[in-house]
């Protein structure tokens, strides 16, 4: 169901009969101003982690070809972990397979726990995690520019956790801080799992 990106109020539709954007009955602002802006401004607001743009993407937009999003996420995650643990020297097919399995387990743990904790639909939480993990794409720039310092990877992970938290707060009544703590607590066993794979 569409929502007002300003206040989060649900509505039957975003557009009026004249194809104009509806006004929210609660806050008296346009339901979704992002239908009037170009993709460049949309991208800037995504990078700035604005709550309104997350509401727009999660609630008011239909993802075209979601498989591309899913594939991109898992590939980016495997590349990120590979760079994080500096696994390129010992790369093998079995290691790639283990990392892919770990990435699936990670997503499963996050989705199941958050869904259980907040009584969300699994598909909604899964899509939210995938959409809001776009900062993992920055790892490709780090490969191109040969960044090897650990703090850059930590920064990307924090940005991903923050964008996940904002996205999850958009589909729930929970605060961003609460979701950030929950995701942070879940990341501890996940990184222990990756470390175990790394040691093996």
UniProtKB/TrEMBL annotation:
Principal localisation: endoplasmic reticulum
Subcellular location: Endoplasmic reticulum membrane; Golgi apparatus membrane
Any one GO biological process: sphingolipid metabolic process
GO cellular component, one term: endoplasmic reticulum membrane
Transmembrane regions listed in the UniProt entry: 67-85, 91-117, 124-146, 178-197
Keywords, sorted A to Z: Endoplasmic reticulum, Golgi apparatus, Lipid metabolism, Lipid transport, Membrane, Sphingolipid metabolism, Transmembrane, Transmembrane helix, Transport
Presence of the UniProt keyword Transport in the record: yes
Source organism superkingdom: Eukaryota
Membrane protein topology class: Multi-pass membrane protein
Signal peptide: none
Pfam families named among the record's database cross-references: Arv1
Family: Belongs to the ARV1 family.
Record's function text: Mediator of sterol homeostasis involved in sterol uptake, trafficking and distribution into membranes.
The name this protein goes by in its record: Protein ARV
Source species: Nosema bombycis (strain CQ1 / CVCC 102059)
Source taxonomy: Eukaryota, Fungi, Fungi incertae sedis, Microsporidia, Nosematidae
